[in-house]
Design goal:
Blueprint: H1 3-15, H2 37-74, H3 79-103, H4 115-141
Length: about 140
């Protein structure tokens, strides 16, 4: 039994074996040359690159159009309109601030009080405030 499968495999291999069909009168075909790198690029690489770039451009325009339509349906405004509105508001605020600054006296030559001077001024104010108390106490106690 083991003999039969081996013989059947060999007969199968011989049956489907590729045999050259070149006769003595026919010339052999020249060997197939490998295509050059440029030829491969033109046949395979260039179409791939064109497809990739074209697809990205088409998708970009499609998504942009979709976003514009969505903004229009929601009532949103474009960036340029929003920027123009912000610029006009900024100009208005700057005009208001400039008017206020012109009215105010921005004198930077005024002297700033030192902490010792502040304490001294507060002490004098306290003494002025409390002076009537001393007079009243002296009047009550007859110390005049």
């Amino acid at each position: 039994m083991s003999n039969q499968p081996k013989s059947s495999i060999k007969s199968f291999q011989e049956q489907y074996k590729i045999r050259p069909t070149v006769s003595a009168g026919m010339k052999k075909a020249p060997p197939i040359q490998q295509p050059s790198n440029f030829h491969l690029f033109v046949k395979a690489g260039l179409p791939f690159l064109l497809f990739s770039v074209g697809a990205s451009l088409v998708l970009k325009s499609a998504v942009e159009g979709k976003n514009i339509e969505r903004d229009k349906s929601k009532g949103l405004i474009s960036k340029s309109e929003r920027q123009a509105r912000l610029d006009s508001e900024k100009d208005e605020m700057m005009e208001k601030l400039n008017k206020k600054w012109k009215k105010q006296d921005l004198d930077n030559t005024k002297r700033i009080e030192r902490p010792e001077e502040i304490l001294e001024r507060r002490k004098k104010e306290r003494e002025e405030r409390n002076r009537w108390h001393r007079r009243a106490w002296r009047w009550i106690t007859f110390q005049q």
